[in-house]
Every structure is written in structure tokens, then in C-alpha cells.
Predict the structure of FAS1 domain-containing protein.
Amino acid sequence: MAATDRRLLFLLAASLAVAAVSSHNITDILDGYPEYSLYNSYLSQTKVCDEINSRSTVTCLVLTNGAMSSLVSNLSLADIKNALRLLTLLDYYDTKKLHSLSDGSELTTTLYQTTGDASGNMGHVNITNLRGGKVGFASAAPGSKFQATYTKSVKQEPYNLSVLEVSDPITFPGLFDSPSAASTNLTALLEKAGCKQFARLIVSSGVIKMYQAAMDKALTLFAPNDDAFQAKGLPDLSKLTSAELVTLLQYHALPQYAPKASLKTIKGHIQTLASTGAGKYDLSVVTKGDDVSMDTGMDKSRVASTVLDDTPTVIHTVDSVLLPPELFGGAPSPAPAPGPASDVPAASPSPEGSSPAPSPKAAGKKKKKGKSPSHSPPAPPADTPDMSPADAPAGEEAADKAEKKNGATAAATSVAAIVASAAALLAASFL
């Protein structure tokens, strides 16, 4: 290989090593600035920090403790979350760029725009050079005033992360009208989201009371859509005992607040409401690009949409019923030929206030269940580089390969490991 080609290959490997360590952690950065401790605390409580960390290019407009105190008074966590999203710009801005805007003004997208809750361009922020050298920030809503102004630069990691202090929050009428979990009719919400059969099951089994009791503390719910109950090969749920049905429905909920961006950060097994101390009835998360799936050990179910995000409660819809191997590992008999969703019989309700202990079925050798077809619309394309491990293949041999691949992915976060890999590649090129 020519010397020039070898040098180019080495430079490419070195640039990949630098890119691999360019990820950021906004809460770790702000830990070094006590004047923003309240802002940083709410980033963690609302999980907006996970959304920020998942972006390759982002500018955080931070508020001092005094300004943040004025913002959060009398607001719910859901409203505070939207305010923090509106303060997060999906572009890189530093002092030089702020003072050299084309035509002295421009609109930029924020995290709030990505939620789907912003009508029109309400999720955009207008940045304008004002008189006296000041830079103002305002909502794109007509008539919005530039109450927030640039104060100082805090931290830059060109051209991935910029942290800038501003004087005041950015708001507009309607920003703080988020739906509240406390005022939500859970069954009505699920039915509207296309999860009528799941709603009927949680009511008939009494599990809805368990969900409602957990909503004030922390709850993440995975609601299968109606098509999931018509999937070919789905076990006959009518043959479950009342206790087993309760366990199955508990398996569809986590005792923690985990919006989609936070699910991407979870490693290893996570406990569900059905989990035991022996590690049974746990789930794991598999990510690929912007797709997030819940892995039961038998099958995977894609998180299709989020129908409610009100800290500390979040409700996702999923493409298929989550089948724990503790109940279905013995290859249960399939359900009858699919009919209308209402034709799927539900188990008799359990006594009010009772929580029957799980009764796992264990018969014969466990088998892998074929993946149920997905009928939900595809997830939106990722707007950031794919930093998540690829979906793990099925089968023991494929699982071994996936484990090795995951180990390689973890090692790649070290600069030394990446440079070593580049050196190996260079050596191979001489053979």
C-alpha cells in the first residue's frame, strides 16, 4: 500500500476515535456549576437530560437558580419538562454565532418541536440581535416578546454541545396546558390510542387499580394495540387463570418513569410490576437507531408511540403482547382463529384489592416464539447517528454473536481501544 494511502487510513481511524468520545452528559457538566443546580435537578427529574444526551448537536439555554425558581413555582413536572425542552435548541450556537446571524435573526428548532405537541412552528425559537449588542430569544408565536436575553457562555464542546446562560425562560400561551395523569381517564386514553382490548383486560382483572396506585410514584406502561391481540401464534389468553392474567398485565408495566429517550439508556434487565426477587418477569431493552423494543427473552415488541408523558407517568403503545417465558415458555396452545378484538375472552376478575401471586407455567423444553407481525405505523427516522447496539439475533449461536458484538461496542467507547483497532486494521492492510 502506498505511503499516502496508509497515512489517510491512519487519519481516518484517528478521526473515528475522536468521534467515539464526543458524546456528552449534560448533568455531569452542570454539576460543576452550582449556580445552575436547580435547572440541573429538573433536567434529571423530567428526564430531559436523556433527550439532550441523545442529540449529537445541541445548545442548552440554562437558567440561574433564581430564574429557575420563578419558572417552576405552581407548575407541574410535565409543564416544567416542556419549558426545558423549549430552552433546548437543536443546533450549535456560541457567542460568535449569536452575534453574526444572517440578517440579524433566525428561527431554530427546539426539543419541544420534536414532541408532536407543538402546533405549527410553536416549537421554534426566534433568535434576534437586539439594540445595544444584546441577543434575544422568543417563542415563534406571533407577538412574543424577547424576555430572555443572552447573558454569558458557560461551556462549549465544538460543534456538539454548547451551554449558554439566559436571563429568563421562553414561554408562550398554551405551553403550560399539558394533560395531567391525575386528571386522565386511563381506559378512555387507551381506547383512543387503539388499545381497547388491553383496556378491557385491565378493568376486568382489577389491575387498573394497581396502575392508578403507581401513577403518583412512578409508572411506565406498555399497552399492546388491538392488532397485537389478533397476531398469529398468540397464546390463548382465555386459558390463563385469574392470577396468571394479573401477572401478565403487571408484566406490561415498570415501577419507574421511563420515556423513550430514557429507555435507550437502560442496560441489562429491568424489573416490572410482576418481577420477583429471583429475577423472574424482568424485561430488557433493545435499541436500533431510533427504534426501541422491549425484549421478553421469547420475543421483542417495538415501542410504537407515546400517548401520555406526564412525569412520573408515561404510557407507550407496543406492537405485540409481551409474553414472559415464565408463563409461556412451555409452548402454550395458540389462540383460536382471530376475530374481532371483543371476541377475545378475558379471565374472571380477581377480588378487589387482592394481588394474587404469580403462578408460572413450566412444562417441557422452552421454545422461541415466532415474532408477531407489526401493524403499527413505522417509527420516525432517527435524526442523530445510530449509537445504539443492533437488534440481537435469535437463537443461542446468534445470541453468542450478539454478546460479543455488544462487548465490542462497549470497548469502542475507549479511545485506546479504538486506536488499537485502527492499528490492527493498518497491520492487516500490509498482508
Q: What stands out?
A: Residues 186-318 form a domain with the FAS1 domain fold (CATH 2.30.180.10). Residues 8-22, 331-431 have pLDDT under 50 and may be disordered. The radius of gyration is 25 Å. The longest strand covers residues 300-310.
